[in-house]
Amino acid sequence: MIEDLQQFESGKSLAFDLCVVGAGPAGLTIANELIGSGIRLCLVESGGFGDEPETQALYQGENVGHSVTLDEGRYRVFGGSATGTTTPHRPAWGGRCAMLDPIDFETRQWVPKSGWPIDLETLRPYYERSKRANNFLEPWLPDDAVPATLGVELPEFHSQDVNPFVWRIAPAETPPSAWKSAGPRKRFDWGRAYRQKLQADPDVHVLLHANLTSFVGSADGSSIETITVSSLKHVSMTIAAKAFVLCCGGIENARVLLNAPQNIVKRVNEFDNLGRYLAQHPRGCIATLETTPQTDKRLQNLFTDFLRPDDVQYELGFALSEQAQRKHGLLNASAAIYYAAGPESPWRSGARLQDAVRTRKPYQGILRDVANVLGSADSVAANTWRRVRGRALLFPDPLVSILIDLEQAPNPQSRVTLSDMKDSLGMNRAKVDWRISEIERTTARQFSDYIGDVLQRLGLGKAQPSAWLGSDLPVQNDELYGTFHFIGTTRMSRDPRDGVVDENCRSHGIDNLYFAGCSVFPTGGHANPTLTIVALAIRLADHLRARLRN
Q1: What pLDDT digit, counting tens, does each position of 29-40 carry?
Q2: CATH topology of domain 1-59+74-94+113-130+188-270+488-550
């Protein structure tokens, strides 16, 4: 059943076995896994089925550290940030997926506060189920088998510091056989994928436009008895449950709990870890690449996106080796090469001409651009054929950049606290102090050198490291920027003194309160988090099924 809180009279009460707050990938996964279990479940979602500016504005807050845009990149909508909707304000979920590496789970002496209470082998069977949940329905090929499948002969790196890396992009939800009848191909959308299943299950109650605004706990705060949810139209409802799971994202999971009554906050935050250790996967340009016409085509055919419209899509790039991390005391990292048309390319000429037609404003050099486009008809035709074959555009004389995705070292001073500002529901907004440490720059600098050595040895170009890598000044916002992967604010730990939740994602201080999403990651590796978020959510669903049945 799916209902809208705004259609109810205020003051009603409902009771369930389990209440899950947040209908993004984590919350939807838990609900989906429990379908048919007989567990009565309420899935609470702040938004509706589409973009709503007033609801999205609840994310606004105060930024006091390295720049974070708080009301972009995460979305209050059924499906969360992994919806496939495309609007000018919200691009589609990219679907880029990878697993964490074994070293990411380890306690590393050179990374204080590293180490998960579970290892990769514990999570591996849940990763297999997560792949299917993310719409990877065909066998997951080993990384070393992917290039041959793509028709690519990847050269040997002969490096102990850099390995090839493969990202997988979730297949479209519209199968190729249905394209002609189904219309345009759509990116896999978590909201669309699970909406009908949850609507049909008699034990699942989805409540839209319901924002968690308050908790009521037992006298000593050791358990949550009820929560109150409210809509922006001032309709409120009380929900009682035997267990509660917060799946609101790395910033909101912390903000919601910090707004709770003090007897609850003290239990969750006994050792002052709630909201601390905020991390992302900082991204930035670590080098540009000087190439020649002889190497341009080869480079772009090796390290690029492989679109494969009828199957899993791939991207080939680089990863920092485990050996290099251990030897040099570095964090985990990966990098990909991106290509842009040069200022005199036919693609830039075409873009300028298109703008001139649209605005009806001619410009100096318009005849040169017309001649450039007309003289490049063969290139346009060749690129059209490349797109049909599932290859990215091939740019002549491209601008080539190497972009890094970095792990961050856990930093207790990088954190989410509460601002004095209030949102429209009367809750304190988030104050975000995201910090970047020197070990992140050190890792980026050395990784840039390693990749440059590999590419030069392979005859694929000469890397020019970015200036910020060798600077003594603080890293600027345009040098490393966020990826909206908010990690660590309710981190998992064996010892309550080191985190917020245990290995089952249950609060150390409150018996029936759980957290899901990448806020529970103690460290984040370099991999996009969705695959791991879903694996942990499936594991949590199994735990809750056993607990609530008993």
Answers
A1: 999 999 999 999
A2: FAD/NAD(P)-binding domain (3.50.50)
